[in-house]
Amino acid sequence: APPMYAPLLDDLEARELSAIDLLDAFEETDDLDALFLEHNHYTPHANAVVADAILLGLEGLGLLDGVSAPE
Question: Positive or negative, the Cα torsion across 42, 51, 14, 12?
C-alpha cells in the first residue's frame, strides 16, 4: 500500500520538486527499537541510516555531480 503521504509526493512531483523518501531505508530494519529512542528521537544508528539514504537520494538526483567529500 502506498504511504499515507503519497498525495504529498504526487503534488511535489507535479510541481517538478524532488523529495527523498526515507521510508524505504527505515523499512529495511526488523528492529524499530534500533531506530528510535524515547519520545521518538532517532538513535545514532537511525541517524546513520538517514544520512546514508539522503546521500544516495542526492546522488540519484544528480545533485552531487562534481562534488567531492571534504578531507
Answer: positive
